[in-house]
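Title: Comparing notes on inverse folding

I've been comparing how different people in this forum approach sequence design from structure. To keep things fair, I'm posting one structure and asking everyone to reply with a full sequence. Here's the target:
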């Protein structure tokens, strides 16, 4: 595969600083060489220009840094759109999860997609339901057509993905309002309860079956906080009881086996909270599994 990497060093969508260093940490963990090592051709396009919190006003309390985030997402969408036009595979490094607003918009401009959102959180809030006003918790809703018009209509079209073509995997923390909206929207939610009860492989198989058919492929958005914090401590918003190291690999190996992934982002790595860059190293290993690395 011909892969183009873009970094989005953005932390304005998160409540805590540090995920803006994610792209550096992931690159430092040898992403590019490792991808070459499994046979891909790789081009690193560097980072988009990302706004710094201290240099700007926080904006509305119910959707913090809305303006700078939509500007950033617009820029990233343009970059990703160019990669897709060039016939290459976009791999976006976050940053907080607000970067997916840009990456998914860029891909959806060219392709009708399904979406796998692998995350501890639903990210399906709107300003009305969000307890924090942090935009990284509203991104999936916006991509599916719910929430603030500036986010929903980014790039001039909506929704970026039909809600019934969205599957969330690994969920274990939902706000009451977003739980309601997820149900209403008809997104497929696979919580940790489902993973425990039915097994990870059943859940992932079903999720792919729900979102991929009838599309041009799937976008996979990997929020590292889906992994149990014991194995991935360096994330913005850790929640106990997550996927194990092997479960995460298996999920992504199944994505690779499906041959339906057309784009990917890897987000919420927080080097400040990490130990010896372990979480970024794991992020690289998981990405390799999604892109075809096999044990045998
Ligand atoms: Mg997230
Ligand atoms: Mg999360």
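Reply #1:
Here's my take.
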């Amino acid at each position: 595969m011909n892969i183009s990497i873009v970094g989005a060093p953005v932390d304005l969508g998160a409540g805590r600083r540090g995920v803006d260093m994610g792209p550096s940490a992931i690159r430092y963990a040898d992403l590019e060489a490792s991808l070459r090592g499994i046979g891909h051709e790789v081009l690193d396009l560097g980072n988009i220009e990302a706004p710094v919190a201290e240099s700007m006003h926080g904006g509305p309390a119910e959707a913090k840094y809305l303006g700078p985030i939509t500007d950033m997402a617009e820029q990233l969408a343009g970059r990703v759109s160019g990669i897709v036009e060039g016939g290459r595979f976009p791999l976006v490094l976050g940053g907080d999860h607000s970067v997916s607003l840009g990456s998914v918009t860029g891909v959806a401009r060219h392709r009708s997609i399904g979406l796998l959102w692998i995350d501890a959180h639903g990210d399906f809030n709107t300003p009305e339901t969000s307890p924090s006003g942090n935009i990284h918790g509203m991104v999936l809703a916006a991509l599916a057509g719910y929430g603030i018009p500036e986010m929903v209509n980014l790039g001039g079209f909506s929704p970026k993905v039909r809600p019934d073509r969205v599957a969330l995997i690994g969920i274990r923390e939902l706000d009451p309002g977003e739980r309601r909206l997820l149900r209403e929207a008809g997104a497929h939610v696979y919580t940790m309860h489902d993973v425990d009860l039915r097994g990870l492989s059943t859940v992932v198989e079903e999720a792919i079956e729900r979102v991929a058919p009838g599309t041009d492929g799937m976008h996979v958005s990997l929020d590292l906080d889906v992994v149990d914090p014991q194995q991935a401590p360096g994330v913005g918003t850790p929640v106990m009881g997550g996927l194990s190291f092997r479960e995460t690999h298996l999920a992504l190996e199944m994505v690779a086996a499906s041959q339906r992934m057309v784009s990917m982002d890897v987000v919420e790595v927080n080097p400040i909270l990490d130990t010896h860059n372990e979480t970024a190293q794991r992020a690289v290993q998981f990405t390799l599994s999604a892109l075809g690395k096999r044990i045998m």
